[in-house]
Amino acid sequence: MTTPREELERTLATAPFAEIYGFVLVSIDDDSCTLRIPFRSVLERPGGIIAGPVYMAAADVSMWLAIKARYGDESPLTSSMVTHFVSRGRRSDVLCRARIVRAGRRLIFGVAECSSDKGAVLSHHTVTYMRTENSRSLWSG
Length: 141
Hints:
Blueprint: H1 4-14, H2 18-21, E1 24-28, E2 32-37, E3 44-45, E4 49-50, H3 52-71, E5 77-85, E6 94-103, E7 107-116, E8 121-130, H4 133-139
Antiparallel strand pairs: 1-2, 2-6, 3-4, 5-8, 6-7, 7-8
């Protein structure tokens, strides 16, 4: 029997988009998930700054995994994300912690924060996921 952590790691290992970023599952709790994206020069934009989409992907995927960890193998969809770039990252791993703030019947609200491997805050995100028809019927109990 596999643990929830093993299931999430398998999800990351088999998701085609995950290969681009090299996500590593750092921790998973009841309402949060932390991922690490190891630094690679391919993630930089011209000027040696880590590209903004790296932070956005980290926030989205860490929230998605936090939801999957709490509610099981469902398929919620990203509805919206508001991103604030706080500081620029250079030649650093990116750590992103996402936390479920509230889960309603149709929407799940969360926040995520990306930081450098030295602890500097790089970005802040508010994320909303929409429950699909299949997941709503299972979660409405």
